[in-house]
């Protein structure tokens, strides 16, 4: 299995694979999650540790890469995640995926906002047993906004119609995105502690979902995805 299969699995099941870098966010049963997650001391000292980056070579000497950050509670409960795919072999080269926990109001979707920029409301694409995901085709201008930004705030609605805010820390994004340092798929697979079987399941599920979408005349990278305006 190659990076293309991994990308598909991550797109359709964003949080089921090993999390890699993550942030602990303080929560309690009597209060909604705090808006901003607390970075670890190591991540604060080296913000590039905020991100997991995986790349594999494609045609013409280029690389297909994903960058991902996961936000969790102190007890490692999933709160949200953000993933950016940069694959020159795809018609939509830049694709972003944000996921939130189950139990959200689906009609509201998820609002994405970089710092105090214009919010973008993105509809849910699908839910799996662990999360509900939104997907957005983005452009270079949006990536530049991520590079210049301090945080990306994801806002969903919980069952009580209250805001559920997840903060993606953009510190270190520029260095990781522009830098050469990355795990290869094989290195990631070795570091995943025997998760290869899970990845195979996710890839098979993603392939089945893609075939269903194509049968309906759509593809995950085109009409089924929203497009981001420049910020």
Automatic annotation (TrEMBL):
Species assigned in the record: Devosia nanyangense
Lineage: Bacteria, Pseudomonadati, Pseudomonadota, Alphaproteobacteria, Hyphomicrobiales
Biased composition (Low complexity): 26-44, 214-231
Keywords annotated in UniProt: Signal
Span of the signal peptide: 1-24
Protein name per its UniProtKB record: Invasion associated locus B family protein
Region of interest: Disordered: 25-44, 209-231
InterPro entries named among the record's database cross-references: IalB_sf, Invasion_prot_B
């Amino acid at each position: 299995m190659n990076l293309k299969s991994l990308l598909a699995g991550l797109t359709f099941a964003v949080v089921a694979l090993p999390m890699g870098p993550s942030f602990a966010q303080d929560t309690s049963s009597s209060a909604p999650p705090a808006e901003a997650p607390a970075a670890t001391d190591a991540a604060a000292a080296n913000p590039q540790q905020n991100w997991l980056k995986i790349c594999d070579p494609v045609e013409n000497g280029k690389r297909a890469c994903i960058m991902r950050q996961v936000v969790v509670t102190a007890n490692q409960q999933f709160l949200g995640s953000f993933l950016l795919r940069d694959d020159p072999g795809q018609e939509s080269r830049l694709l972003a995926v944000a996921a939130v926990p189950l139990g959200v109001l689906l009609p509201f979707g998820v609002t994405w906002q970089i710092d105090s920029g214009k919010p973008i409301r993105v509809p849910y694409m699908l839910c799996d047993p662990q999360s509900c995901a939104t997907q957005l085709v983005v452009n270079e201008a949006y990536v530049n906004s991520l590079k210049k930004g301090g945080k990306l705030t994801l806002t969903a609605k919980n069952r009580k119609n209250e805001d559920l805010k997840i903060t993606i820390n953009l510190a270190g994004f520029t260095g990781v995105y522009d830098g050469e340092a990355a795990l290869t798929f094989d290195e990631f697979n070795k570091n995943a502690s025997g998760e290869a079987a899970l990845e195979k399941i996710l890839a098979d599920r993603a392939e089945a979902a893609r075939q269903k979408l194509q049968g309906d005349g759509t593809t995950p990278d085109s009409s089924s995805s929203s497009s981001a305006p420049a910020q």
